[in-house]
Write a structure and sequence with these properties.
single chain; six-stranded mixed β-sheet; four-stranded antiparallel β-sheet
Amino acid sequence: QVQIVESGGGLVQPGGSLRLSCGASGFTFSSYGMNWYRQAPGKERELVAGITNTGGNTNYAESVKGRFTISRDNAKNMVYLHMNSLKPEDTAVYYCTVAGYDYWGQGTQVTVSS
């Protein structure tokens, strides 16, 4: 069955950086696009970044453009979210998903606070 496991969240000061990792199994990883979403308390879930199956194309929410970078390693069935210049409003649970499918991991908490 499809399994998705996110890791790498934590507490970071404003202006800091984190790298989130997502490991996937149970499907042909290299055939599917992958997305990162986030959900903050009291807010709707937001698409943060997406990457095509080959990694050749990426897209970002306006709120993270220039600060976040999505990447993938198809040999390792991994997708990453590199987050720089973090702001308190980036605080949320971050989820990795298979693009177009309802497969979600448990999420990883990112808290940006001084």
